[in-house]
Write a sequence for this structure.
């Protein structure tokens, strides 16, 4: 027996994960989707996000409105990327230029979010709705309670509420050690400066073509790339937490001054680039170092009955392998595949159990790989250090399993697991 009424799906959180899923399942008449965002508007902070081959393949598999959403949002193939050494015996040498597969497409975050949300009816998009508790009700539905006192009942709840959201607590139990994200051991800071200023500070030679540069050095990493069609240069400095600076428990950001920057780059080879990047960073009058966090402890599950978690709520990772948004898109692809197959609210828990089983190994592997990649990019890889030849040997393979994912096979794997569950638990 299948349900005559559509299955009511509530998505909590209107970031890239929630918006991708909402858009992906919109085409299924047996699913009725509402999306709830705690902020007063749907918005994305930060400039651009890069989506590698695996993310683009997942968008293509979702199909429909989503297939070319990156292009409609103005996404372009990422400019050339070059990895170099900033200190050690090979200082100022090139390690390698990244292949097209690793570069992917780069798109403005706000434009992508707006495109994803566009086809969803206004009455289904809710802002100022912060979830504060979730209860499984006797009727089988899930009761969602909001801070403003309102309540919504859904057949299926998807927590896409980010790294500091609520739904992870509900799925794992609030005292589970895997609930909080932990400091990953790195900090990063950003400064946006006009192109002319960047040329003067860093050197004209880095801007002859539109190229992203990464610099590996002792205990840190520097990156600079060109944004806004060539008008702006983004400069990033990353360091290791606890070396020359102490972070108090629960401290996520702190001001970064000249002394702290110079301390972070103390062991780097003295070059015009090193001096220039310090000045470039100090152009930001509100310069702050942000502690990078991640879900260091593997969650035992991403699902609990009729509630599941996706995106950063499920598997927050450090940005070293640029994969968080890509994994959120893969989550949406798998959930859409599974929700398409179910016909009754009584099958929601089986779809979510399948999603968890299929997505956990890959996403948790990337959490740990990303952190390990950060160690190498900060010049601290075991048996690698600042040896450019060894770095060239070990780095590319770290992305291969992420980018070369066969998304069609991933969907098939999920469908096989779900089919077994549906046969084992037939509807009355
Ligand atoms: C510096 C940096 C660079 C990155 N670069 C890349 C990259 O190049 N490529 C890539 O693939 N990934 C990248 N990532 C990762 C990527 O940005 C994230 O993984 C992705 O944006 C997560 O999306 P999300 O929707 O899961 O979470 P979020 O974007 O955090 O969205 C969660 C939403 O839920 C809302 N919310 C929170 N709590 C509640 C509640 N209780 N009730 C209702 N709503 C709630 C929030 O307001 C928010 O809108 C980067 C990350 C960082 C930090």
């Amino acid at each position: 027996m299948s349900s005559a009424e559509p299955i009511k799906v509530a998505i909590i959180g209107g970031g890239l994960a929630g918006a991708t899923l909402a858009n992906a399942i919109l085409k299924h008449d047996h699913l009725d989707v509402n999306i709830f965002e705690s902020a007063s508007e749907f918005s994305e902070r930060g400039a651009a996000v890069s989506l590698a081959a695996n993310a683009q393949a997942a968008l293509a598999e979702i199909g429909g409105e989503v297939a070319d959403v990156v292009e409609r949002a103005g996404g372009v193939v990422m400019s050339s990327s070059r990895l170099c050494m900033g200190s050690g015996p090979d200082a100022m040498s090139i390690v390698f230029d990244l292949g097209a597969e690793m570069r992917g497409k780069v798109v403005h975050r706000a434009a992508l979010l707006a495109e994803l949300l566009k086809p969803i009816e206004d009455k289904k998009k809710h802002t100022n709705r912060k979830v504060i508790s979730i209860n499984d009700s006797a009727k089988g539905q899930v009761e969602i309670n909001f801070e403003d006192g309102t309540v919504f009942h859904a057949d299926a709840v998807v927590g896409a509420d980010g790294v500091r959201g609520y739904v992870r607590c509900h799925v794992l139990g609030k005292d589970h050690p895997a609930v909080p994200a932990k400091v990953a051991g790195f900090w990063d800071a950003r400064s946006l400066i006009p192109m002319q200023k960047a040329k003067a500070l860093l050197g004209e030679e880095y801007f002859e073509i539109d190229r992203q540069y990464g610099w590996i050095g002792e205990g840190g990493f520097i990156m600079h790339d060109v944004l806004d069609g060539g008008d702006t240069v983004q400069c990033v400095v990353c360091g290791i937490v606890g070396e020359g600076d102490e972070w108090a428990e629960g401290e996520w950001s702190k001001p970064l001054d000249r002394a702290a920057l110079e301390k972070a780059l103390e062991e780097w080879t003295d070059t015009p680039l090193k001096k220039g990047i310090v000045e470039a960073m100090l152009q930001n009058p509100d310069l702050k170092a942000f502690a990078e966090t991640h879900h260091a402890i593997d969650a035992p599950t991403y699902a609990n009955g009729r509630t599941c978690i996706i995106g950063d709520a499920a598997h927050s990772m450090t940005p070293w392998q640029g994969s968080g948004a890509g994994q959120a898109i893969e989550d949406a692809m798998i959930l859409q595949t599974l929700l398409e197959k179910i016909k009754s609210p009584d099958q929601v828990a089986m779809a979510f159990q399948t999603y968890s089983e299929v997505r956990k190994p890959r996403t948790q592997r990337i959490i740990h790989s990303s952190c390990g990649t950060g160690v190498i990019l900060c010049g601290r890889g075991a048996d690698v250090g600042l040896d450019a030849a060894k770095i060239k040997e070990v780095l590319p393979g770290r992305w291969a399993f992420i980018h070369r994912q066969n998304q069609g096979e991933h969907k098939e794997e999920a469908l096989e697991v779900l089919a077994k569950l549906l046969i084992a638990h037939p509807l009355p």
Notes: DSSP finds 15 helices and 20 strands in the chain. Residues 348-377 form the longest helix (30 residues).
